[in-house]
Amino acid sequence: MEPYRPRRSVLYVPASNEKALAKIAQLACDAVIIDLEDAVAPADKIAAREKLAGILANRPDADHNGRRCEMVVRVNALSSEWGADDLAAVAKAEPDGILLPKVDTPRDVLEVGDVLDDNFAPDSVKLWAMIETPKAMLNIGAIAELGRDPASRLDCFIAGTNDLIKDTGVLATPDRAYLLPWLMQMLLAARAGGLDMLDGVFNDFRDPDAFARECAQAAAMGFDGKTLIHPSQIEAANRAFAPSAQALAEARAVKDAFALAQNSGKGVIALNGRMVERLHLAQAEKLLAKAAAIGA
Question: How far apart are CA 70 and CA 29, in angstroms?
């Protein structure tokens, strides 16, 4: 089993916002996305790009538990006037990941991977993909399948819910009723490809109760975490996507039961009146690994 890397809380930080950048080391989020795309005005994009090397050279150190905030950069689309230069600069700076906007087809991922290989970017630089267009939804299975090939570098999907709403004209409701089928389709594709799946942003950071409900909804659907637009959302996201005390107790009970000598080699056992299979043991071990990684 590969080491679990938590991505419960993933905060967008504009590359042009000096004040926000200075606070990164103090934040309790699992990952930060340094944004060169939507959060940066066209007139500021070149200046923001030029800051990247310094930002990533001063990335936060690991905490006392050995956990380090993941640093990802969202570049402008390669089809834009800034995209190629963004990618060249990011490849040299070697972040943990590069977030690609407007991914429509597998080719959009593969082309960026080729550029990284040509620039000798280490294999540790992963690719994340925004799923935010109708075309991406139609091609999502083929895009996700790249996750099974380490050479593609693809590691994570992010739901671009705001753009999907804009491009489709679907009604945005508090319960996200019209988005749920697409969100579940993303989740299924991500799991088929061995990828992490992050929920889209919640726009009203002044409504913590509604934000908490949306986090709980995404966690119940199986998402790994949520993208955020404000530091005030970090704590609630970390809490929502962490295992509950009850879930941890049940996982420990399953693991302990299979560890008993009388259950050695058994595929199915009885535990507290329930049938428990080894697939439940695998789920329990994954949950316990997640808890250990976040210090729960």
Answer: 9
DSSP string, 114-174: HHHHHTT--TT-EEEEEE-SHHHHHTHHHHHHGGG-GGG-EEEEEE-HHHHHHHH-----T
Q: Tokens at residue 70, please? A: 């993941």
Q: Quick one: how far is CA 144 from the chain centroid?
A: 14
Token pair 């690719």: residue: 127
Strand partners, 71: 32
Q: First and final CA of the chain: distance in angstroms?
A: 19
Query: Which one-letter amino acid corresponds to residue 38?
Result: D
Angle at 177 between CA 240 and CA 195, to 5 degrees: 50
d(CA 265, CA 57): 50
What number does CATH give the domain 9-240?
Answer: 3.20.20.60
pLDDT tens, position by position, 220-249: 999 999 999 999 999 999 999 999 999 999
Average pLDDT of the chain?
93
> Cβ of 101: how many Cβ atoms within 10 Å?
23
Instruction: Give the domain ranges of the chain.
Output: 9-240, 245-294
If pLDDT is split at 50, 70 and 90, which confidence band does 65 have? low
**What is the rounded CA–CA span in Å between residue 52 and residue 48?**
7
Summarised one tens digit per residue, pLDDT across range 3-31 is 788 999 999 999 999 999 999 989 999 99
CB 100 within 8 A of CB 136: no
Of 174, 178, 175, which is closest to residue 165 (Cα–Cα)? 178
Distance of CA 277 to the CA centre of its chain: 29
In this prediction the pTM is 0.92
